[in-house]
Design a protein that fits this description.
single chain; alpha/beta; 6-stranded mixed sheet; 3-stranded mixed sheet; 15% strand
């Protein structure tokens, strides 16, 4: 772990903080590796149920560190940096250019979005399951200006999240998307006052951590796994994941019958 990535454990919630204030939390190669290792560690931590991905000093992430990229172009960063990121479909836990963007974890991650979440930073936010966004934060494919491609899942996750029409608007124009519009199109899940994204994301993570985890995570993985399947196969894989949780459901039914959680109470 480098000083640019910090990990804080709050009981069942792990907070991963990106901390490079001089470049608005832009990610260089060492930071990408550190973020990747942080989330692999979260995945392997049996006590950690939900992660919060946070950017320090008022910004989530300004994308790839273009200053570092310029140095790489002058052969100061090593010619193998990009080719080392090649991977094959189905490869276990491949490293992405921005770090964790190719991982499919078994547990949820919530992005706490403040300030800029642009270019590769937007792709990192898209990688998360949920996005809690401050009212003055913003998204945008700002790398459009410099010919930097979306190679951390942006062209895949954005259309799946907001639909092709919205995705093409953002991908082709690179324009700024502020919180109200992001919420309206489904790019943000919650909008909170400025300065409150981290606390709100932690509060949401703690709520998720209270639920029966095996069932919640089976449903989560079923939702991710269904994308490329015909309906019959998608329904079958949902059943295969969910049938092992029927015991949990019966236990939950008993708690409901005893008076817990009536009228939608959580």
């Amino acid at each position: 772990m480098t000083e640019s990535v910090r990990i804080e454990k709050l009981e069942a919630v792990t907070v991963v903080t990106l901390d490079r204030p001089a470049v608005r939390n832009a990610v260089d190669a060492d930071t990408a590796r550190a973020l990747y290792e942080a989330f692999v560690a979260f995945e392997g931590d049996a006590q950690a149920r939900v992660a919060v991905f946070h950017g320090a000093h008022g910004h989530f992430c300004a994308g790839c560190d273009l200053q570092a990229g310029a140095r790489m172009a002058r052969n100061e960063g090593g010619p193998g940096v990009l080719t080392d990121l090649d991977f094959e479909p189905g490869q276990a836990q491949p490293l992405g250019p921005m770090g964790p963007s190719r991982l499919l974890l078994s547990k949820p991650v919530i992005a706490a979005v403040s300030g800029a979440a642009v270019a590769g930073g937007m792709e990192l936010a898209l990688w998360c399951d949920l996005r809690v966004m401050e009212e003055d934060a913003y998204f945008g494919v700002y790398c459009r200006r410099f010919g930097v491609p979306l190679i951390d899942g942006g062209t895949v996750r954005l259309p799946r999240l907001v639909g092709m029409g919205h995705a093409m608007d953002l991908i082709l124009t690179g324009r700024k998307v502020e919180a109200a519009e992001a919420l309206a199109m489904g790019l943000a899940n919650r909008v909170v006052p400025a300065g409150q994204a981290r606390d709100a994301a932690i509060a949401l993570a703690r709520e998720l951590a209270k639920f029966p985890q095996a069932t919640m995570n089976a449903d989560r993985m079923s939702a991710y796994a269904q994308w490329d399947l015909p309906l019959a196969e998608a329904l079958h894989q949902e059943w295969e994941r969910g049938k092992h949780r029927i015991g949990d459901a019966l236990e939950g039914a008993g708690r409901f019958a005893a008076g817990e959680g009536r009228h939608g109470r959580f």
